[in-house]
Specification:
By secondary structure, the protein is mostly helical. The protein has helices at 6-19, 25-29, 36-52, 55-77, 86-100, 102-105, 113-127, 144-157, 182-198, 203-227.
């Protein structure tokens, strides 16, 4: 039995009213593309609130992110070639979560979180058979550090590690000692960015370039494996 959510229903109606004829001209003119910058900003503001441990701020920022979702859904509901609404979004997500949790909704067993992670990739592969690489679906707009971490995690599934990076290892590029804490790591990264800035180098762009090089190595490894004789 589903519980009523009058607050959510009221917000959905508010978005619809603002975008309807006679509502707000600015809201009515927005598109999916014009709202991207606000979605990114609101997500980062939510992250700030979570990391600060400010629950009152988190409540507000969750609302801002939710509003973006409702805004996009209302745009789609009134766009001829899209025609989906917030209920369609919710139903699609419910179906996806049921599919991703056969240990809850089906007959598969998973006693630990690690058990779940172990079969998630198989489930995702079944959902998206058109993907041919572990790198397919990685969001390109992620910040460089988050992108590097994501790509490294995906690469491991293809049997490729950071040691397989396509650039030669020299004394200058050899792995350095890993800091013992995140605080030490943060200071080390900050110092590296500062030094790069002093040299006129863009740390974000540089790391993205390195990630692209590494991705090439991952795809080459995948192609080589696919070309191996079966059995």
């Amino acid at each position: 039995m589903s519980a009523p959510h009058p607050g959510l229903d009221e917000l959905v109606a508010t978005v619809a009213l603002l975008r309807a004829p006679g509502g707000c001209p600015w809201d009515a003119e927005q598109t999916h593309e014009s709202l991207v910058q606000y979605l990114v900003e609101e997500c980062w503001e939510l992250i700030d609130a979570i990391e600060a441990g400010d629950r009152a701020e988190m409540l507000e920022e969750l609302g801002d992110v939710l509003y973006q979702v409702l805004f996009h859904a209302d745009i789609a509901a009134h766009t001829g070639d899209e025609r989906f609404d917030i209920d369609d979004v919710a139903r699609h997500m419910t179906a996806k979560m049921v599919s991703r949790h056969p240990h809850v909704f089906g007959d598969r067993e998973a006693a630990t979180a690690d058990d779940v992670v172990a079969f998630w990739e198989d489930l995702k592969a079944d959902e998206k058979p058109h993907r041919t690489s572990v790198l397919d679906g990685v969001p390109r707009g992620m910040p460089a550090l988050a992108l590097a971490r994501k790509v490294l995690g995906k690469a491991e599934k293809a049997g490729v590690t950071a040691q397989d990076a396509p650039w030669p290892v020299t004394p200058d590029t050899a792995p350095i000692a890993v800091p013992a804490t995140e605080a030490e790591l943060g200071r080390q990264l900050f110092g590296l960015v500062a030094a790069a800035r002093d040299q006129g180098l863009d740390a974000e762009r540089a790391l993205r370039a390195a990630v692209r090089e590494f991705e090439g190595e991952v795809r080459r490894a995948e192609a080589a494996r696919a070309a191996e004789p079966a059995g």
